[in-house]
Structure formats: structure tokens, C-alpha cells
Specification:
9-stranded mixed β-sheet, binds pyridoxal-5'-phosphate, single chain, TIM Barrel, 411 residues, alpha/beta, Diaminopimelate decarboxylase, Lyase, Ornithine Decarboxylase, Chain A, domain 1, 12 helices
Length: 411
């Protein structure tokens, strides 16, 4: 098996930069870690594909035995296209119209409804003919960054646990069947206790819904970004979740599956954004390394203040110097501030690590710069192009040129 740095250099040679590369072996490793951690209780995983939705990635994850969590009707369509069966897809949208919910119902997928008004309308229209899952908001503050916290009191997600009585009335009044309860409190939660507290809250709520098949704990597993960063201890969590379920099932009187929706945990570490250094600029105070990419390709540092480890693949053993690594977007566009890196020269190849989740997926063509290509490093070591680089023609595609002739300019 070739060393990852050699594969990354080969990918850059073959496909050019900027380039996203995903290592399938890492995705498999992460999935297997979860699977063995939760082997003590019947657990199902639904990959949250908003993290990275390339069809080749979806197929790989399907092959591992995972289901799929989708937040838009097009993600549902992508999942079906990639080969997921409707019963292995969970649709967990927020702020969607009733029509979008019905479209998903017609595709036969599991519905996770997070709003009382939608639930009431769904129940009034379909009664108990199509069992649903309900997304609750436990009002637990958790997660790495306010923008990615979803459980707090001001969050738009879920039905408040303080509205359980109202929820119960709607369910009874419409004859809806509730087959699952769901919670997702945020992203990058390293504390196992947060998940266990959510689970206790779900157990409390479950008493009001006698027909449940599963409880869904969402996701938010943390992965290390900086060297030495912790990862959520899924092995410990798995043991404690299994124990808690065993005790609760006795009280509840029927078996309950445990569901999770890992996104970042499965794909973050698999991904690299490869860039070349366009310029090295020494100003009065700073040495900038300006690369042929920007926040239009990887927005996480600018949007979430996230840390991405950087390696210099051209000069890995160079003596370390301090750099501020910036992109080419005409706005403050900084990937890393004051970072110690092996000496950088123009045209060096750099890799941003942990770029698999919310990297390409949140990219845009801001500044009329094209989106990068994507490559899969297969488990057999082969590099496969899984998305072509956007072209100038792609930027024009879809535009309607209503002024057919180029107007003359005033003299
Ligand atoms: C985004 C999301 C996830 C995945 O979160 P990660 O932090 O990437 O694991 C899971 N479930 C739902 C409902 C989500 O919106």
C-alpha cells in the first residue's frame, strides 16, 4: 500500500490542483470503529450525507452497510440514485414545506418531522397510514461552535421537550403512529455524557409513545483536527448506551433500536484539499503563503474558525517558519494564521487535512473561480476521478443571456 503522501502527490500530478482527495480506507476504518463500539445493542447508522454527498462516496458508504440521513429532497434523490433502499433512508429536514415532506413520503423513506404544524397537517392528511419519527429539542447546549449547536433554547430545530403534552395531543387527535424519537444536539461533541443525557431525555419522552421502534441520537461525534485533539470516545459511549437501553427496554416493554447519523465522523479525516502555492509574500509584519484556492473551496476556517492541519508535501523536511496561509478570494481569506510550516517556496504542494466533511460540499464559484475536482483513493490504492473540475463554460451554463448583442458603450 503506497504511503498517503505519495498518493496525494500522484493525485496532484495526475489531476492538477486545487483538488479534493478522499481516502476510502479511512471512511471504512471510521465506520468499523462505530460498528464495533455499538455492537452491544442493535444499532443502525445513517450517514449524514450533507457532509459529503459525491455519489461515489455514497456508494462506498452504502457498501459498508450504512443507511443515509438526508436533509433535502435532492439528498433523498441522490441516495436513491446511489442505491440506498428507501427504508434505509431517513429524511430529517428543517423549515421545509408540506409538499417537500409529501414528496419524500411518496419516495417511501423514513420521515423525521421537527415541527408541530407540519406534524398536525401530516396526521390530518395521512392519519396512521405512514408512521413517522419526531425530532425533539432537548435544550442541551453542546458542540464546538455556536453556529453548529442545534439543541439550545434559541435553536430552530426540533419540537421542544416542553411541548410534549401538545405533541401528544396532536398524535392522539390525528391517529398518527410515532415509530421513533430523534435528537441531534450539535456537532463536535467530545463529552460522552452529553449523549447519555440526551438519551435519558429520550427515555423520559418515550413513555408517552407506546409504539416506538427506535430512538435516534443524531450525531455530533468529534474528530481530532489539531494533533493531540480528542476524538469522541465511541467505545465507552457504546458500552454505556447498550447498558442504558437494556435497562430501559425492560421498563418500556419492547425492544428499541438505537440509531445514529454520523457525518463528520465518517468522512472528515478521509479528505484532503490539495493546493499549490502561487506566491510567497513578505510584508512588513507577516510572511504570507498565497495558494491557488480560497474560502470558496474550503470555508470552514473563515466560517467556523476551524483549524485544519497543513502539510507541505513538496518540502516536508524543510526547517520550520511562521506563515499565514491565505487564499485568492478578494476578501480576507485566511486558512491559517501564524502557522509553523516547513519552509514554503512558490509552487509547493500543500495539503489541508480533515477536509472531507463540509469541504467540497460547502464550496462555491465565488469570484467566478471554478469548483475543484474530486478524486477517490480506493482501498486498492487506485486514484479515481469522481467529479470533474468545473470549467469556464460551466459558469455560463444556465445563465440566460437576454441581451443578445453586446451593447455599444456611450461615447
Ligand atoms: C448535520 C447533521 C448530522 C451530522 O452531524 P456531524 O456533526 O457531521 O456528524 C446528523 N444529523 C442531522 C439531523 C444533521 O443535520
Amino acid at each position: 500500500m503506497p504511503n498517503i503522501n505519495n498518493s496525494l502527490r500522484a493525485a496532484a500530478d495526475q489531476f492538477g490542483t486545487p483538488l479534493y482527495v478522499y481516502d476510502a480506507t479511512i471512511i471504512t476504518r471510521q465506520y468499523n470503529k462505530l460498528k464495533s463500539a455499538f455492537s452491544g445493542h442493535k444499532t443502525r447508522f445513517f450517514y449524514a450525507c450533507k457532509a459529503l454527498s459525491n455519489v461515489a462516496i455514497l456508494r462506498h458508504i452504502h457498501g459498508l452497510g450504512s443507511g443515509l440521513d438526508c436533509v433535502s429532497i435532492n439528498e433523498v434523490r441522490l441516495g436513491l440514485h446511489a442505491g440506498f433502499l428507501p427504508e434505509n433512508i431517513l429524511f430529517t429536514p428543517n423549515s421545509v414545506t408540506f409538499e417537500e415532506l409529501v414528496e419524500a413520503k411518496e419516495l417511501g423513506v423514513n420521515l423525521n418531522i421537527d415541527n408541530i404544524s407540519l406534524l398536525e397537517r401530516f396526521g390530518a392528511t395521512f392519519g396512521g397510514s405512514y408512521p413517522v419519527c419526531v425530532r425533539l429539542n432537548p435544550h442541551i447546549e453542546a458542540g464546538g461552535n455556536y453556529k453548529i449547536q442545534t439543541g439550545h433554547i434559541d435553536s430552530k430545530f426540533g419540537i421542544s421537550i416542553h411541548q410534549l403534552r401538545h405533541l401528544e395531543r396532536v398524535v392522539k387527535g390525528t391517529g398518527l403512529h410515532v415509530k421513533g424519537l430523534h435528537m441531534h444536539t450539535g456537532s463536535e461533541i467530545k463529552d460522552v455524557g452529553v449523549f447519555l443525557r440526551s438519551l435519558e431525555i429520550l427515555f423520559d419522552a418515550a413513555g408517552r409513545f407506546p409504539e416506538l421502534d427506535f430512538l435516534d441520537l443524531g450525531s455530533g461525534f468529534k474528530v481530532p483536527y489539531k494533533p493531540g485533539d480528542p476524538e469522541t470516545d465511541v467505545a465507552t459511549l457504546g458500552q454505556q448506551v447498550a447498558q442504558a437501553f437494556q435497562t430501559f427496554e425492560k421498563e418500556y416493554g419492547r425492544p428499541l433500536e438505537c440509531w445514529f447519523e454520523p457525518g463528520k465522523y465518517l468522512v472528515s479525516e478521509s479528505g484532503y484539499l490539495l493546493v499549490n502555492v502561487a506566491v510567497v509574500k513578505q510584508t512588513t509584519a507577516t510572511v504570507f503563503a498565497g495558494v491557488n484556492s480560497g474560502f470558496n473551496h474550503l470555508i470552514r476556517p473563515m466560517f467556523y474558525d476551524s483549524y485544519h492541519h497543513i502539510s507541505n508535501l513538496t518540502n516536508p523536511k524543510g526547517s520550520e517558519r511562521l506563515y499565514t496561509v491565505v487564499g485568492n478570494i478578494c476578501e480576507t481569506d485566511t486558512f491559517a494564521w501564524d502557522r509553523l510550516l516547513p519552509e514554503i517556496h512558490e509552487n509547493d504542494l500543500l495539503a489541508f487535512h480533515n477536509a472531507g466533511a463540509y469541504g467540497f460540499e460547502m464550496s462555491s464559484s465565488f469570484n467566478s473561480r471554478t469548483r475543484p475536482a474530486e478524486v477517490l483513493l480506493q482501498e486498492d490504492g487506485e486514484l479515481r476521478l469522481i467529479r470533474k473540475r468545473q470549467t469556464f463554460e460551466d459558469l455560463l451554463a444556465g445563465q440566460v443571456d437576454v441581451v443578445a448583442e453586446v451593447p455599444a458603450q456611450p461615447a
